[in-house]
Amino acid sequence: SNRARLIRKWGGEAGFEAQKRRHRLKERGLEVGIAKFDLDRTASRTVQSHRLVQWLTRTRGLEATEAAYAELSQRHFIQGHKLNDNAMLADVALRAAGVPVATTLAFLEDAIAPPTEGDVFRAYHACQNLGINGIPTFVINGGRVISGAAAAAEFVDVLQDIHDKGDPLVDPIFADLLGLDPRHL
Fold this sequence. Notes:
Number of strands: 2
Radius of gyration: 17 Å
Structural class: mainly alpha
Number of helices: 10
């Protein structure tokens, strides 16, 4: 189960409990209407869902990708769906981005269609090199890394610091890696 995977990831029960206290996901979820995260859902390989998100970003843009990501999060974290279920992924692409199911299934079933599994792993390793080990994570202005589990005040502090220092804007660091036009990020 996902619970067992998270306990292993954080070095045992004590580490997992400490991580839950730090992130306060349950409390923060309640604040936005998420009554229950399904920790006992089946853990699944996520490469296909990452391919889908990268493909939608390249072909449909960020707005469609954000809608798909929100739908994937709902289905996975709350409803317990597997992230390697091609039929579910195709339905997400249809609902979020208007992509016909047959088109999405053809992409997902073609292992050499970009973005490939190798593209996903290159992005994964780049994230690890930045110290990113969970999602969502925000990379602000090319190098300031903030966990998506951070409180709003942390984001305000970073953005205020950038403003106060007059830091110049930098190109998005993932544009080349993901094969995207930086003007669209």
